[in-house]
Amino acid sequence: MKLKASIEHKPNIPTASMADIAFLLIIFFMLTITFEVDKTQVTLPKTTLRNEIPKKAAYVSIDPDGRIRQSDGNDQSALVSGPEDVLSMAATAISSDPSKTFVVKADGGVPWEKVDQVLDALKRAKVRDLRLLSDQRTVDDY
After folding, report:
1. Can you tell me the distance from the alpha carbon of 24 to that of 27, in angstroms, rounded to the nearest whole number?
2. Which terminal residue of the chain has fewer beta carbons within 10 Å of its beta carbon, N or C?
3. Which of 67, 69, 72, 106 is nearest to 89 (CA)?
4. Which residues, other chains included, contact 49 with Cβ-Cβ below 8 Å and sequence gap of 6+?
5. Element (H or E) spanning 79, and its range?
6. The model scores a pTM over 0.85
7. What's the pLDDT tens digit per position in 37-58?
């Protein structure tokens, strides 16, 4: 005589911990994401050297039309009227952190006088760590 099981077990996948895993992934991505504070599109000059830029560096950008944007490294970059505003922002940032890094990002077609005015404003604000952003190419690329 054949005995038949009274309870049939269907195969299933345990889904109780799926919400926990999704929640942990969301937290992981929220903690590891970094946002770019300066999104000004410029064509950078070429170089063969490369230095890393600190994450909280302040940015001053000059776009192809000569407009100046600035960011203190925490907020998105904002359009300013001229080098005087850059001087004001830099002096404020240096007063709170004397070792603050400033990055100048200028389009390759911008007249040098415009870049010189921004560099002069940063110099008057007593910026010690100043970096000029460029497009890195290796020696083989030339």
Report:
1. 5
2. N
3. 72
4. 136
5. strand 78-80
6. no
7. 777 777 766 666 667 777 888 9
Residue 28 has, within 13 A of its CA and on its CB side, a CA count of 6
Is domain 46-141 in CATH 3.30.420.270, yes or no?
Answer: yes
Task: State the Cα–Cα distance between residues 71 and 103, nearest whole angstrom.
Answer: 10
The span from the CA of 23 to the CA of 26, in Å, is 5
Q: What is the pLDDT of residues 79-96, one digit of tens each?
A: 888 889 989 989 988 898
**pLDDT at 136 (0 to 100):** 59
15 with 54: CB under 8 angstroms? no
Q: Which residue has the higher pLDDT, 138 or 122?
A: 122
**Structure tokens of 30?**
């929220």
Domain residue spans of the chain: 46-141
Give the list of residues 6+ apart from residue 55 with CB closer than 8 angstroms, or none: 34, 73
